[in-house]
Amino acid sequence: MSPFPPFIQRHGRIALRPLSDADVDALLAIFGDPEVVRYWSGSPWSGPEDAHRMLAADRAAFDAGGAIRLGVSLRDENRVIGTVSLFNRSESNRRAEIGYALARSAWGRGLMHEALAQWLDWAFGPLGLHRLEADVDPENVASRRSLERLGFRQEGLLRERWIVGGEVADTAFYGLLAREWQARTQR
Ligand SMILES: CC(C)(COP(=O)(O)OP(=O)(O)OC[C@H]1O[C@@H](n2cnc3c(N)ncnc32)[C@H](O)[C@@H]1OP(=O)(O)O)[C@@H](O)C(=O)NCCC(=O)NCCS
User: Fold this and answer.
1) Which of 176, 153, 162 is nearest to 39 (CA)?
2) What share of the chain has pLDDT > 90, as a percent?
3) How large a percentage of the chain has pLDDT more than 70?
4) Residue 106 CA, ligand 1 centroid: distance in Å
5) Domain of 136: which CATH number?
6) For a pocket test of ligand 1, which of 37, 143, 149, 154 has the largest count of ligand atoms closer than 8 A to its C-beta?
7) Rounded (10°) CA dihedral 54, 114, 152, 146
8) How many domains does one find in the chain?
């Protein structure tokens, strides 16, 4: 039995779907871009083996019930232009962390907002989460704005939490509760 309920697709510009080996080139185009991973805890991908490694790790984490990632594409187009994920899921506390990335060519059109709104509907609906969290570099303004537009609140600033390639970075820690999301979407 799947550890996650099926994702429910809504209407709009965006479709979310499972990733497969057929998406390796598109994923490499996204995560091989230094601008996309600029605020992440890792380096840009250098080849298809990085994509295969992520897909294998995703499958193991999915089977264990700890994480799930879907590809984001434009409706009626199969090519993946981004991903959304939930990870560090705690079933007993009904919480998880959220992750997301979009190819640079797709930035600035509100597409991730649409994708994340669907993702939150599913996470707080069929999946039954009580709380979602996000760990963001305070300098990643587009990501912070994306979260705030969905109703996430900054709950703390964790100093010098990451050291990536010798550079030290803080974490802006965000949270959103199911009842806050439901109050926003039922207005
Ligand atoms: C974060 C990300 C997914 C946002 O996706 P997007 O579809 O381009 O987002 P939007 O077009 O809705 O823009 C989000 C907001 O940030 C603002 N913004 C974007 N770039 C900005 C910048 N450089 N400075 C200030 N504000 C910026 C936009 O004006 C918008 O604000 P608004 O909601 O008040 O209008 C995308 O930038 C991305 O993939 N970044 C790289 C990966 C990443 O950092 N992921 C998150 C890790 S925590």
Assistant:
1) 162
2) 92
3) 100
4) 10
5) 3.40.630.30
6) 143
7) 80
8) 1
